[in-house]
Amino acid sequence: MSARFYIDARLASGDTLSLPATAARHVQVLRMQPGDSITLFNGHDNVGEGEFEAAVTRMGRSDVDVTIGHYTATEREAKRAVHLAVGMPANDRMDWLVEKATELGVASIQPLMTERSVLRLSGERAEKKLAHWRAIAIAACEQCGRNRVPVIHGATSLNQWLKSTAQQTSTSQRLLLSLQDGTQPVAQAVNITDSTTLLFLSGPEGGLSPTEEAAALASGFKPVTLGPRVLRAETAPLACLAFLSLKDHS
After folding, report:
1. Nearest-CA neighbor of 93 among 133, 153, 43?
2. The domain 4-72: what is its CATH number?
3. Superfamily designation of domain 82-248
4. How many CB atoms sit inside 10 A of residue 98's CB?
5. Are 168 and 134 in contact (CB under 8 A)?
6. Which residues of the chain carry a pLDDT beneath 70?
7. Sheet (strand 64-72) strand order
């Protein structure tokens, strides 16, 4: 597979364009030369969600020009849309979660601030974090072959998010990852042959508080479990995505 780059612009066979700065630097680091091939995608072009071949036509000191070639309709998305709403884990664990969830096919990620959250975001810091996470998702798509970049929403509080979801008309199956006794296993709660959209809510380190779990249940979430072991905040939602990905291809 040739080097892949996300281009946030319309792509069309025959056009010539200058690569964005980040992509241009990558091409230069790879020591590519005029005539070498790369792959471009944007995930929203009017021709579909495939990818374009492109050939390097000029290597400048800090810029790279390419000519767009053949389009290939390539579908690598999951069979069903899976959305994650996660109490943000601390430090670089949220970065890791965004990267791996993208590789596993997540449709969107909603970062949440909860009672037990260590990470609190607002203002300029929140905007910088959002841009950082979106860049991680794009890089993960470039690496894994996805042509659709998942939506990364701005961080908000769990209470505000639950209020907003309560006002939405949705056919999604809402599942809450919980350690409560008697909770149904994910494998039993999810109909593998169904294509219904899934929305998983998962807590931060220490999980959601009893009050928060009660609020989620009142908002239509069904408690499910991944088993008797306590998984880390960044591991649990990824385990759900991995399980569904394996079932989609079994």
Report:
1. 133
2. 2.40.240.20
3. SPOUT methyltransferase, trefoil knot domain (3.40.1280.10)
4. 26
5. no
6. 1, 44-48, 167-171, 192-193, 248-250
7. 4-6, 37-41, 51-59, 64-72, 16-18
Is residue 6 within 8 Å of 57, Cβ to Cβ?
Answer: no
Amino acid sitting at position 218: A
Sign of CA dihedral 248, 44, 64, 38: positive
Q: 22: left (phi > 0), else alpha (psi -120 to 50), else beta?
A: alpha
Q: Which residues contact 168 (CB under 8 A, 6 or more apart)?
A: none
Give CA separation, 72 vs 42, 54, 103, 192, in Å: 13, 12, 21, 29
The residues pairing with 222 across neighbouring beta strands, listed in sequence order, are 175
pLDDT at 59: 93
Phi, psi (degrees; rounded to nearest 5) at 134: -65, -35
Q: What are phi and psi of 230, to 5 degrees?
A: -90, 115
- Per DSSP, the residues of 37-77 read EEEEE-S--TT-S-EEEEEEEEE-SS-EEEEEEEEE----S
| Separation of alpha carbons 245 and 89, rounded Å | 23
Contact between residue 202 and residue 97 where contact means Cβ atoms under 8 Å apart: no
Residues of the chain with CATH 3.40.1280.10: 82-248
Domain(s) of CATH 2.40.240.20: residues in the chain: 4-72
Q: What is the pLDDT of residues 45-64, one digit of tens each?
A: 555 578 999 999 999 988 99
